[in-house]
Design a protein that fits this description.
The chain is mainly β. The chain contains ten helices and 33 strands. The protein has one domain. The strands form nine sheets. The protein has a five-stranded antiparallel beta sheet, with no helix packed on it. Strands 3, 4, 5, 6 and 7 form a five-stranded antiparallel beta sheet that branches. The chain binds MU-OXO-diiron and calcium ion (2 copies). The site of one calcium ion has 8 residues, from strand 10 and strand 27.
């Protein structure tokens, strides 16, 4: 980033105040023209002369196509658990781990339960099914696939700097596509009070009481979807994986929810009040009166951004769901009693929540470029939303959107939306996806260029998917630093910091996804030559991260 841009960026971040006391820089920054842009040549660069040059502990790496995790100097990784590893006498770790959350046990920051979503499967590795006609898939093959998705709860412990999986028959468990999970709602959902299993768990969130929210994203790949466009009758759209053939009782409406999981017991429930869509994440903010605000995005081209505001303390069931009109800067209520157009088109609130996308469109929700992860800046309170791309609309590189709630009040029904950071050559990244703030308030994010596009055409310069860091204060505030590169075809997901901030837990999802057969593997990470690729959870640590956490 050019220095002039950086100063504008600092102002844009709303963070100029944090530099007070470093060397009187605030005045210099305040005198900058907020509207300065790339075409204005830099004038006297007062930041470089008045700020003591701080040696930032993390240095950028170059984009690469190497089949390994490449990290900045001073960082290293270790694999904590791989797909297929035994986690107890009964269970193995599932496939394609995504969202991670670490919940300490007995307040011990070095020992806790790690939740991992298992989002989807690759048939080649799970059931061995390789034909195009999925009606030929056997029930036995579907059962293998059902075991590979859902989530894992694993007990982990930091032993002198090395994170270890503790074999624990009490705490380590699997939730799969066969675990029965009740709906947290008064009315049945498509004739059932509970669903068979959870699947498509992408990103998520953590509640103030330490449960985990797992978000069912591309649920239609497993049991299809119900099409309501015909005025005469509903039509079942077939799924990609073809599971409905062997489990016709599992209706599409049983999936596409946010699922709350209590890690100590494995109890789970589907939170109907948060609506049904391809939920990417559920980011929870606790209000001073203990009510909750939950932000969630629907990751599909031209879908929407939602927020739920609870009407009583600690409730993820009673409250109102809103959808964003980012052009007008308004949150629009999806409450049945409040909206005549919803009353004309749907039977009741339950139907609105089940057919959320249709309801949102009737209310003028703004189509967005695939809303992915959401995080709240702990310093400014701004809500950041990754909009990863929208290829049919010509957006190949994506951006991070900034939502500023009016008066920084998360219950506000008005806001201002603007671009926080755009993908592209200037910043060296494309397709932002998962976001996380570290304990010092720096933003980390991962990219998700699809496996078939990596290294090609618009994506040639970006190499494999990466891990990026944006310092939010200090001399390099606002710069985008690539600090990690993923193995071939893989995507880093689920970034989550340990309580001391000195370990970053990270999922490595779908390495070798472009492999056409077991004889033609595109990746052999993490075990190298002669081995199948395995999605895994890694712990990233090292002196550079320790230094970053120890900075004043
Ligand atoms: Fe599972 Fe939108 O990523
Ligand atoms: Ca994602
Ligand atoms: Ca996140």
């Amino acid at each position: 980033m050019k220095k002039q841009d950086r100063r504008s960026f600092l102002q844009f971040l709303g963070r100029t105040g944090i530099l007070v006391g470093t060397s009187g820089v605030l005045g210099a920054l305040s005198s900058c023209n907020e509207n300065s842009n790339n075409t204005t040549p830099p004038t006297t660069d007062s930041t470089s002369t008045s700020l003591p040059k701080m040696d930032f502990p993390l240095k950028a790496i170059q984009a690469t196509m190497e089949d390994d995790i490449i990290l900045s100097e001073g960082l290293q990784y270790q694999v904590i658990v791989r797909w297929g590893d035994s986690i107890s006498e009964a269970d193995q770790f599932g496939f394609n781990n995504d969202y991670l959350a670490f919940i300490p046990l007995k307040d011990n920051p070095n020992e806790g339960l790690l939740w991992s979503n298992h989002e989807y499967i690759q048939e080649l590795f799970i059931s061995g099914f390789t034909e195009d006609d999925r009606s030929k898939k056997t029930k036995e093959q579907v059962e293998k696939e059902m075991y590979a998705v859902g989530g894992s709860i694993i007990h982990i412990k930091n032993n002198n700097g090395t994170w270890e999986l503790v074999q624990d028959n009490e705490l380590n468990r699997r939730i799969t596509a066969k675990t029965m999970i009740p709906f947290d709602w008064d009315e049945p959902i498509a004739g059932a009070t509970e669903a068979m299993g959870t699947l498509a768990g992408c990103a998520g969130g953590v509640t103030p009481w330490g449960t985990v929210l797992s978000c069912e994203e591309n649920y239609d790949m497993f049991y299809g979807e119900t099409d309501h466009t015909s005025p005469v009758e509903t039509v079942h759209e077939n799924s990609y994986y073809g599971w409905e053939k062997h489990y016709p009782q599992n209706k599409p409406e049983h999936y596409g929810w946010v699922v709350e999981v209590k890690l100590e017991t494995g109890e789970a429930k589907k939170l109907v009040a948060l609506g049904r869509c391809a939920h990417e994440c559920a980011t929870v903010f606790e209000l001073p009166d203990k009510r909750l605000v939950v932000y969630t995005g629907d990751d599909k081209n031209d879908e929407h951004l939602y927020k739920f505001i609870s009407s009583e303390p600690g409730s993820l069931r009673n409250g109102t769901l809103y959808v964003a009109n980012t052009e007008k800067g308004e949150w629009v209520s999806l409450k049945y009693e409040e909206q005549e157009i919803l009353q004309k088109n749907f039977k009741n609130q339950t139907e609105v929540l089940i057919r959320l996308r249709e309801a949102a469109k009737l209310l003028g929700a703004t189509p967005l470029n695939r809303p992915e992860d959401i995080e709240i800046d702990p310093e400014t309170g701004n809500v950041l939303v990754a909009l990863t791309n929208n290829k049919p609309k010509g957006d190949y590189l994506g951006q991070i959107l900034k939502i500023e709630e009016t008066n920084n009040d998360k219950t506000s029904l008005t806001f201002k939306a603007s671009t926080f950071l755009a993908g592209g050559p200037e910043h060296g990244f494309a397709c932002p996806d998962n976001l996380a703030f570290d304990q010092k308030g720096n933003l980390w994010f991962t990219s998700d260029i699809s496996g078939s596009s990596i290294g090609k055409n618009q994506y040639e310069a970006y190499g494999n998917n990466g891990l990026f860091l944006v310092p939010m204060s200090g001399d390099q505030a606002g710069e985008v630093i690539q600090v990690g590169s993923a193995p071939k075809d893989a995507e880093f997901t689920g970034p989550y910091f340990s309580p001391d901030g000195k370990t970053l837990f990270l999922s490595v999802q779908h390495p070798g996804e472009q492999s056409k057969s077991l004889d033609a593997l595109t990746s052999t990470w993490p075990d190298g030559e002669g081995n199948n690729p395995k999605p895994s959870v890694v712990a990233i640590s090292g002196e550079a991260l320790t230094k970053l956490m120890d900075l004043g």
